[in-house]
Amino acid sequence: MVLAATADPPARRGSDYARLSRLVSEAGLLDRRPAGYAVRIVLTVAAFVAGWAAVPLVGDSWWQLAVAAALAVATTQVAFLGHDAGHRQMFRRRGPSEVAGLLAGNLAVGLSYGWWVDKHNRHHANPNHHDEDPDVGAGALVWSYEQAAATRGVGRRLARRQAWLFFPMLLLEGLALHVASVRALLGRDADGRYATPMRHRAVEGLLLALHAAGYLGLLFAVLPPGKALAFVAVHQGLWGLYMGCAFAPNHKGMPMPRAGEELDFLRKQVLTSRNVRGGRFVDVALGGLNYQIEHHLFPNMPRGNLRRARPIVRAYCAEHGVPYVETGLVESYRQALAHLHEVGRPLRG
Mean per-residue pLDDT for 97-124? Predict the structure, then answer.
């Protein structure tokens, strides 16, 4: 999908974002919310710890699969905290943000914080950009006709039916994130330099090792091998599914800029993003990512302020003729899947 036409904006386009930023700042929405985050962290960590404490309490029982499912939810909520730390929504300074991110990502979830920050920053710089956003690069799924045409073999067969396979494939997303984290930690370029920049590579490696040892050690100490592997499959599969379902509504099926399409910062972020309605439950379930437009315009805005920023941003976009897309949760998935189905259409012919 290419960029849709917008209404003619007022003069001095380059200053549009600056004026919006001033409005948001004057409303106090960029101020940190330490009390709110303290409550959020305590509740999230308590649920996560309680889930793991239930494993030895339940013992050798198939009820462990229910524990695994509950832990998939808690694990995703911890990952959301790592996301917020990466954007410095919790703390203004880098040091505390990195500590929180490393503990949430590497130790608790088993996801490289340094790899994720590098990848996610590139996504924020050029969201949905055909050539520069790593989140829409060709992989198990393809996001453009060009990517679909370049597929071969199994990848081509997947691309033909990728809309139907989208949710089943997300069950492997957790495993893919763990593999990507290890590759980022160890991978080097041809010149011998590490391919992915990381500020704390040794610490990240240690924390990932501790996560793997604690995770597998606890499960195989409490459960026989078959049940332990079933627990891993349910936990990792549902965690990947939940993560994918939280991120999929944000940009999939939205316009994809290409090289040579020049947009100012306001339009680059708004035109490629989609908000999801749904009230407080959706706010919690999606970790605040349902306010994707506001999040992309102000990445370091605390999660709790995104809801309050929404009417300001929406009114400002209407004033300047910038389309502001907002749908329900089910409709957001329908649009994303429709895009995936359309991209695979030439291959089905």
Answer: 96
Token pair 């160890």 is found at 186
How is residue 74 written in tokens? 């808690």
The packing angle between helices 162-170 and 153-160, to 10°, is 100
Of 167, 164, 160, 203, the residue nearest 185 (C-alpha)? 203
Q: In whole numbers, what is the pLDDT of the chain averaged over residues?
A: 93
Contact between 261 and 269 under an 8 Å Cβ cutoff? The reply is: no
194-205 pLDDT tens trace: 999 999 999 999
- What is the pLDDT at residue 13? 46
Is the pLDDT at 339 greater than 90? The verdict is yes
What is the reported pLDDT for 10?
A: 40
Burial of 73 (0-12, 13-18, 19+ CB in 10 A): middle
Residue 184 in contact with residue 115, Cβ under 8 Å?
A: yes
pLDDT band (50, 70, 90) for residue 102? very high
Interval 158-182: pLDDT, tens? 999 999 999 999 999 999 999 999 9
What CA–CA distance (Å, rounded) separates 310 from 324?
Answer: 10
Three-state secondary structure along the chain? CCCCCCCCCCCCHHHHHHHHHHHHHHCCCCCCCHHHHHHHHHHHHHHHHHHHHHHHHHCCCCCHHHHHHHHHHHHHHHHHHHHHHHCCCCCCCHHHHHHHHHHHHHHHHCCCHHHHHHHHHHHHHCCCCCCCCHHHCCCCCCCCHHHHHCCCHHHHHHHHCHHHHHHHHHCCHHHHHHHHHHHHHHCECCCCCECCCCCCHHHHHHHHHHHHHHHHHHHHHHCCHHHHHHHHHHHHHHHHHHHHHHHHHHHCCCCCCCCCCCCCHHHHHHHCCCEECCHHHHHHHCCCCCCHHHHHHCCCCCHHHHHHHHHHHHHHHHHCCCCCCEECHHHHHHHHHHHHHHHCHHHHC
CA dist 125 and 268 (Å) reads 9
